[in-house]
Input
Amino acid sequence: MSALLDPVTRPPGIAPILPQPRRELHEYNPPIVPDGTIEDVLEQDLECVTTLTVDGRIRGINRIGVRLMEIADEAKVRGKQWRDVWPIESRTAIDEAFLRAQAFEHVRIDLARPTPAMPDRWWETTIEMIENGEGEAAAYIARSRDISQRIQDVHAMQAVVEEMQHRLKNTYAVASGMMSAFARGNADREAFADEMAARLAALGTAQQLFHRDDRGQRPVADLVPALVASFATPMCPIVARHLPGTLDHGQADALALVIGELAVNSTKHGALSGMGAIDVTSVVQSGRVEIRWSERGSRRVAANVRDGGQGMTLMRRIVAARRGTLDLHWKPYGLTAIVGFPTPAVR
Output
């Protein structure tokens, strides 16, 4: 027992461990990284990394970046304005991004920059500030990742969508022509064929409205009337009014799908299949745009769930993909559907 109480003799050469004063978190100061080590660390990166001076000039590009960007001589671009190594059409976006980075914002932009080996090459580029010990900019880092394959896939998908839209519009035109030919010589049939041709033309216009090259924001007051014009009937008018707010391109696509699905379901089972009325309105509040479809028919709602129905699942998926919500409120003689999206960011 006495051996356990005897003091332990410290081996020679081992320094004693002395208690240290407690250090609060707010006392910590990050080490000042020597200027030359920034490039040393980034040299190990597997993406194209460019270090920039505070005025946007190139300090250096890592070896992998030189190879990916196919730069013949890195020394010749060192000291140049970074914006000048990009095509003219990309420089405005770069200037805007650099201003945002100077305001301590982490910036991400997609830029086109062809290389000798690949004339259609795209880069996802981030720009962020490196601060000194006084909270000021010491340098900037621009990191570029090759996303050419992703952009090509998107363009291919867009081409398929445009082709399908073109075929659909042609189908509408063929159907209209067939009805007109069948109705020729009969006044009642001709009136019906003319009305249906106008509806099919409106459907085609609504479809084309959401697949133009323009990716800007769209007023709800322009979108909704175009979507509902082909579905209203004398026995069930659709009134689109009080429609403030705007949607971005993706949100507009989602809204088109939802309104189209609601209208088709209504022609099968709801107010549009008989007598009734539908109001479509919108409201902007708390950073959200909400579009409300209020439907009331002459027949009592028999069921609000259909086994195997894919329309509802598709609507919810595409709305959720745009960070939106879809709420359905069933009533004895109708339905209220509310589609909500975050207010689009101003660009």
